[in-house]
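STRUCTURE:
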């Protein structure tokens, strides 16, 4: 699997089996009661299955697309990545950008999580509420590193959906995307940005 983050030292914790069973049961019950936690866990389950399936980036893309569409509010994420100018765009430009952003998001997961080597995703059993949003903390543990992935979710209809991912725990992916997209949007407009985003997705799937 592609390594983007620096390795961090891992502490070893020995826990008695009965106590571990109780904690696991409590975690499952908490996830069932917290729909935002369940949404993140469901996405991780699909991501792990895609990693285990291996195959090409395109085949993983096809496997992950339904899970990403279900877990992420891709139109809202696109609007955040574009910034204040989003409201003034035409419906056609909004659709083109959302389609391109969605495609790039799925392609990025398909490329970055390309195989399974015993990685374990752990989701904290309770979210943190800030205003109208929920924040869900999680980690991915490998044989040599622990990486924090924290998620921001809002309620979209009857579902809780992800609107931002904080890499390494506190680096907003949407803030990074807005900064990255700004120059192309300013110089070429929404059509140029949609073309660039689709080109990035093509590279990831190539």
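SEQUENCE:
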């Amino acid at each position: 699997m592609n390594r983007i983050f620096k390795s961090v030292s891992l502490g070893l914790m020995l826990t008695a089996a009965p106590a571990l069973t109780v904690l696991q049961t409590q975690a499952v019950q908490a996830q069932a009661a917290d729909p935002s936690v369940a949404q993140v866990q469901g996405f991780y389950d699909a991501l792990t299955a895609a990693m285990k399936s291996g195959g090409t980036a395109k085949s993983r893309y096809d496997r992950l697309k339904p899970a990403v569409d279900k877990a992420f509010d891709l139109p809202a994420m696109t609007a955040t990545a574009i910034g204040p100018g989003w409201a003034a765009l035409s419906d056609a430009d909004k659709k083109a950008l959302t389609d391109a952003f969605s495609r790039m998001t799925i392609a990025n997961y398909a490329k970055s999580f390309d195989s399974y080597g015993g990685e374990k995703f752990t989701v904290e059993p309770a979210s943190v509420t800030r205003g109208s949003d929920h924040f869900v903390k999680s980690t991915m543990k490998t044989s040599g590193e622990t990486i924090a992935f924290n998620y921001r979710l809002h309620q979209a209809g009857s579902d809780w959906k992800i609107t931002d991912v904080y890499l390494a725990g506190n680096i907003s992916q949407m803030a990074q995307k807005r900064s990255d997209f700004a120059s192309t949007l300013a110089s070429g407009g929404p059509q140029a940005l949609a073309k660039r985003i689709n080109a990035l997705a093509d590279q990831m799937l190539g």
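REMARK: Residues 17-118+172-205 form one domain.
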